[in-house]
Every structure is written in structure tokens, then in C-alpha cells.
Amino acid sequence: MNKKPTVNKTVLDNGVRIVSMRMPHVRSVSMGVWVHVGARDETDVESGLSHFIEHMIFKGTARRSAFQIAKEFDAIGGQTNAFTSMEHTCYHARVLDTQLSTMVDILSDIFLNSSFDGSEVERERPVIFQEIGMVEDTPEELVHEMMGPALWGTHPLGRSILGPRENILGFDSVAIKTFFKRLYQPDRIVIAIAGNVEHHRLVDMVAPVFSTIAGGSGFAPRAVPAAGCGIALKHRDLEQTHLCLGMNGVSVTDPRRFAASLLNTIFGGNMSSRLFQIIREERGLAYSIYSFLTSYTDTGMLGVCTAVDPKDIETSVDLIINEVRRLKRDPVPAEVLADAKEFTKGNLLMAAESPDNQMARLAQNEFYFGRTLPIQSVIDNIDAVTAPDLQALAEDLWDGGRAALTMVGPGADGTDFSGQLTL
């Protein structure tokens, strides 16, 4: 018996794509209905609508009430959720392979037949307000939220995915239905599924219902942003000051993305990284410090987050910036690069054992590349990265630039940090 995962793809006449990966060694199936529409595709007055729709999808159809949707998923032992990002919205579930047909039926029903009832909109509005409040009350999340406008300014990437309260107050059933019909176009929909599933069986279930979606009138092109170097400081009476630095990164399709991943790992991506060792282990300035990559269709960011004693803010910022300059100035030693490659490949291969991760990877590869990229090709590209590649990337991204900075906590006001942020 062939135990190797196999990938298949079917494109319906209206443009909806169905992509599956058969993983015969697992008993579960993970399915996602993905739309290549997110917060960056909204106008200012629409900001927050994609996220509002994500909530409303689960609030009832002609066949099922909100309670019935929840009850039916629970009855089959299913795990279901949804999320909105800057470029995607996804409705997903995972069940045992014996419950595949039920999962497909429920997900198809809520995606295609949600009523977006006005009374449900009113009930959900305060829930979203609470979600906004939760972010504002959590400093480690708030510094991330503040980084959007600090780095991207007034570009849609600089807005909150949740939207402002004044917009949430104004959204009604008509606005939601109009946005859904205008942007949820069939050629922007990918149905991705991974697990113990046969592709032909999936197509037989999905095609009859998703082929009914009518084509749209086109999609407005996304405006390309320019990274800035803003500073946003918010005083809070806390024990620590939470800070985030943001710098130029790479897009999700940039050929240098493999080098960027390794650069991030070496910089602050694990416990042996430079930032963790210097800030925590050597200097004892923070309990947690990490760097991260955020990539979009046309741009990206490398960020650093930590929380320190207010008296150590300037020292911590200086140490972080010095490590950025070091990546530009000095080649990464061979053994450090080798360790980063093993760490990155190990994480990639372990993630590949999860149907949820494979489902998400199928959809994202389809959106960005129009095909599934074999994991072996990713590993080969990682192995091909050299120390000069890393240094050239660091110089190209950060030479002559400045980092954006956001801070929440005591000591986060009254100080001019602009002189410290030159990369």
C-alpha cells in the first residue's frame, strides 16, 4: 500500500478550486473553505467587515440555527473555527474520517447559505466589542496592533483586522450581504482538505453545491505599501514595558524567503538565537524575547517583541538594534547557519505530520503559487542558503533604514527614541 501523501486538484467551471492531500496514516480529516479576501481589501468605511462576516457565518442558515450548527459539530466530535487575516478568511473544521460527509455538509451550508439575520448582527456586535477590548487590555497583543500603523501608516495593512468601534456600530445585515456578494467571488475560493480522504469522493460532495456560486465583476488590485518608521507609545500602569520593533521584511513569494526564515531563526527565532542569549541569558533583561516574520503578497515585516523593566528600555532597544547591525556587518558562522537550517527543517517536517497544517499549506500555496510546492523543494532551498546570502539580505532590507517602535507600559512616553532606531 502507498503510504505517501498524494495531492490532487480540481477546478470547477466557475473558478472554485478544490485541493486535497491524502494522508492514509491518519484517522482524521481537516477541511478549510478559504477566501483570498481579508482586511486589506476593505475600504476605510468597510474596515472590520471581513472579521464581522467571519463571526456571522456561524449564526444560522435556512436549515440550521446558530445552536444547531454548534450542536451538530459537537455531536460528531468535530473541532471548528474560523479566522480573518490581512489577506485571507478561512472557515475550517476537523473530524474523524467517518464524519467527512457531515462536516462537508455543515461547512458548505454555513458558507453558501448564511442568512446574516439582522437580529443576529445585533447580538454579535457586543461580542466583537469585547474582542476589541480584550486586545486593548492585553499589552503583548496591543503592541502588535500598534505596529500596523507605525510601520504601514494609513495603508490598509496598518489597520486593525477587528475594525474601529464606530464602524462596527454602523454595520448591518445589508452591509454584510453586500460585501459578501461583492468580494466572495468563486475564483478567490479554495477548498482545501487534508487527511484520510479520497479526492474523487470529496469532489462529488463539494462540486454540486460550490459550482452554484456566480462569478463576480472583478477584484480591485491591492495597493502596494511602503514601510515607514513610526513610533507609537502608550502609557499604562504596569510592572513591565512591552515593546515591539518592526523592520522591512520579504513578501511571501520572494525568492529570498528561505534566507529570511533562517535569518529570523538566528536573530531571535529560538532559545539559542542571538536575542534570546543576549537579552535574557547574558543580561537578564527579559523573560521572553523573540523575533518573527510576517509576509504578504507584496511586502513583509521582521519584528521583535519583548517586555522589560522600564529602566531597561533604552538598553534593550540598543542591544536589539546592535544585533541587526551585526547581521549586516558580519557573516554568520558556518555552524550557526547549519544549526538554523536543521531547526527550520525539523519544524517544517514535524508540522507536515498535522492534517491541519497541511490543509493550510495547500490553500496558501494555491493562492500564492497556483500549485502545491513539495516539501522536499522547500528543504532543498533551505539547504542552498549561504552565509553571504544572509548578509546580502540583511544589507538590502535594512541598510540606511530605521525601525518602527511601539511600546505599552510605564516609561512609554516622554522619551525620544528616534535616534536609537537607525539600522
From TrEMBL:
Peptidase M16 N-terminal domain mapped to chain residues: 17-165
Gene Ontology biological-process annotations: proteolysis
GO MF terms, alphabetically ordered: metal ion binding; metalloendopeptidase activity
Cofactor(s) needed by this chain: Zn(2+)
InterPro entries, sorted: Metalloenz_LuxS/M16, MPP/UQCRC_Complex, Pept_M16_N, Pept_M16_Zn_BS, Peptidase_M16_C
Domain Peptidase M16 C-terminal: 176-342
Family according to the record: Belongs to the peptidase M16 family.
PANTHER family per the UniProt record, alphabetical: METALLOPROTEASE, MITOCHONDRIAL-PROCESSING PEPTIDASE SUBUNIT ALPHA
Protein name: Peptidase M16
